[in-house]
Amino acid sequence: MLALVVALVAVAVAGGAVFLAYQVLRAVRLGAVDVAELVAAHRLAAARADAERVCAWAVSERETFEKIITRGVVGAAVRNAGQTPVYDLEIVFRDPPAAWTAVRRVRIVPPSEQPEVYAGFDEEKTEGPVDRDRINEDGTIRLAPSADMHVELWFTDGRGRRWQRDGTGMLNQVGENVARRPAPVESA
Questions:
Q1: 16 and 76 inside one domain
Q2: Closest by Cα among 146, 143, 88, 94 to 117
Q3: What is the CATH classification number for the domain harbouring 60?
Q4: 100 and 15, same structural domain?
Q5: Same domain for 37 and 123
Q6: Considering the entire predicted model, what is its pTM?
């Protein structure tokens, strides 16, 4: 009888040890998942750090940049307060009531304490219905002052991540391992 009790106790202890080992292994696996999630969150935060320091705002001829922006020209001030340049910047201007969109492209924006002003645009289009109060008597469309336009940014960081800062200022990563665009070839 004593041998049976000892055997049962030994089985119970062995079962408890197996259960405890299983619980420890499970906790280690969950901990490894938590560590992996923490590492991923840290990497994302580091990736966003420089991108968070890139911003733009529309300017008009009546503002600080009066000497740079001529009357009626659309422009934006862009500041890269990060530690590294950003590439293939696209400044997208939108005037929704005029159904107008324009894009200004810049190959590289180096880090700087001061914003750089980019005036004009590389392409423009008018698509969709235009508010009646924006149509001039001669049929042309009157745009809002550039300072009242919505400005959106698209750019690539030095690690090949593509970012978008929408018209409300929200930053979103929209691509990874993005190749830089080739320099435009100018015809003579």
A1: no
A2: 146
A3: 2.60.40
A4: no
A5: no
A6: 0.69
Residues 39 and 108 occupy one common structural domain: no
Tokens of 4: 């049976």
What are the pLDDT digits (tens) for 129-187?
999 888 888 888 888 877 778 899 999 998 899 999 998 899 999 988 877 777 666 66
Q: Do 150 and 129 share a structural domain? A: yes
DSSP letter string, 104-168: EEEEEE---SS-EEEES-SEEEE-S---GGGB-TTSPBPPPPGGGSEEEEEEE-TTS-EEEE-TT
* Percent of the chain residues topping a pLDDT of 70: 87
Q: What is the pLDDT of residues 75-132, one digit of tens each?
A: 889 999 999 999 999 999 999 998 999 999 999 999 999 999 888 889 989 888 999 8
With respect to residue 24, please indicate whether it lies within any of the assigned structural domains. yes
Mean pLDDT of 18-38: 78
Contact criterion met (CB below 8 Å) for 118 and 76 = yes
Segments forming the whole domain that contains residue 76: 53-175
